Structure prediction request, 277 residues.
Amino acid sequence: MMTHRSRHISFGWEGQYKRVKRWYDRVMKIRSRVTSNPPQQEQDEKDHDDIYAFFQNCYHLRDWLRRTNTVSHTELEKFFSKHVELGICRDICNGTKHFQISKPSVDAFFSIGRQFLLRNPDRNDGIGDTTWFIKAGDSTYDIFELASKCMKLWESFLASFVFNKTNPRSSMNRVVLLLLCLLSPVLSYAEEKLEPTPEQKELATMVGIILPGMSKEEVRQTFGLLTPFEGFTVERQEAWRYDSPEKQIIFFDSQGRVERVKLLKKDQPDSQREEII
Prediction:
C-alpha cells in the first residue's frame, strides 16, 4: 500500500515557523484596527481566538524543532528559561487549551482582559484608548507587545542557532550529507549534469548544502534569514556572495540555476577574492 506524507508535516519545522508568522500577522492586524469604540461582541471573540491561536502555535514551534531533531531538548530548555515572555506564552497556550494548568511556567491563574480609557474623564464623553493586557504573576503586559517580543525572540534564536550552520548538530548533518554525495554516483552533478531530486534538495536545504541545479528560491530557503550580496562577475555572470556561516560565492547559469559554488577562505584578502560588482 502506498503511503503519503501528510501536508501538515511536509514542510517540517519551517512550515510551523511560517504558520506562527501568519498568526502573528493576524494579531498585528487586530492591533492596527483597534479603535476607540469597542467592537461588536462577535468580532471581539474572533479577535481573541486569533490571539490565542498565535500563542498556541508560537509555543508549539518548540516541539517541532525538538521532534525534527533540529534543536536539542537541553538547548530549548535553556532558551525558554532565559525569557519570562516565553514562559507566559506557554501558560497562555496551555491555559486556553486545557482550562487549568498543573505546572505553570509563570502563573497558572493568568488573566487576559481589555481596559477602556475615557477620552475626557471630566465630561464622560466616550471611550478613548483601548489596551489589551495579560496579568501574570506580579506584572501586567500589553498583549500585542508580548506577541511581538515572543516573535522577536524566536527570530533571534533561529538566526543564531538554527540558521547558523556552524552549530555542532548542523555541522554533523553537513558531514553526513557530504559523505553521501561522495559515495553516491547519482550525486555526481559536476560530471553528469544531473538535476537534484526533490528529496535531495529537501535534505540539502535542511542541513545547509547548496547543490548545482538549485533555483534561487531554494538557495534563499537554505540560508533562511541571511541575506546575500547580489551582483555580477566581470564576465557578467550572476553571482551571490554569502559571508555567513561560510564565505562563499554562488554562481548561476542563464536559467537562474546554481552552476557552481566557490568557498572563500576566511583569512583570504579581499583583493584576492573573485570580484562581484
In short: Residues 7-162 form one domain.
